[in-house]
Amino acid sequence: MKKLLLVALTALLISAPAAAEVAAGIVAPYLHIQLALANDSTDGVADAAKAVATAAGKLGDAGRSIAAAAQAVAGAADLKTVRATFGPLSDALIDYGQEVGFGDFKVAYCPMVGKSWVQKDGDILNPFYGSTMLNCGDFIQ
After folding, report:
1. What is the extent of the structural domain holding 17?
2. 56 and which of 10, 62, 63, 76 could share a cystine (Cβ 3.0–4.6 Å)?
3. What is the phi/psi pair of residue 41, to 5°?
4. Is 136 within the bounds of a domain?
5. How many Cα atoms sit within 13 Å of 112 on the Cβ side?
């Protein structure tokens, strides 16, 4: 029994850094998308969304909804569509974050659009309205 417990604990410790690395591979490109949208831009968004999808795919079932939503963002052709597809990506990432934690990141919510997103602490940078209502929203976690 002790040997089995030791093997399970060792496997968990070995996989934890790998899972953290994959999660970091999701967060950095996600934040690029969030900031681009807050700046009314789509520059680099498709590539960042593809990176999110690739990293999320490494999570198996846990990353399936993130990967699918990221693919939708990657395929969006204009700012309005990217913003529309960013909502489901944010929802999927928030669901995943509620299971594993958010670390230094926070969940923000905009009551005007009724959607949430993840961002670094600091000023609210609303990706759904950009310069029109850049600071609309509050941190909820």
Report:
1. 2-101
2. 63
3. -130, 155
4. no
5. 12
**In this structure, how many other beta carbons lie within 10 angstroms of the beta carbon of residue 37?**
23
Q: In this structure, which amino acid lies at residue 80?
A: K
How far lies 75's CA from each of 27, 87, 112, 133, in Å? 19, 14, 26, 25
80, 81, 86, 88 alpha-carbon torsion, rounded to 10°: 130
The predicted pLDDT at position 100 comes to 87
Euclidean distance between CA atoms 131 and 96, whole angstroms = 29
Any domain includes 129: no
Neighbouring C-alpha atoms within 13 Å toward the C-beta of 71:
9
How far apart are alpha carbons 115 and 133 in whole angstroms? 14
Distance (Å, whole) CA 53 – CA 72:
10
Domain count, the chain: 1
> pLDDT value at position 20?
59
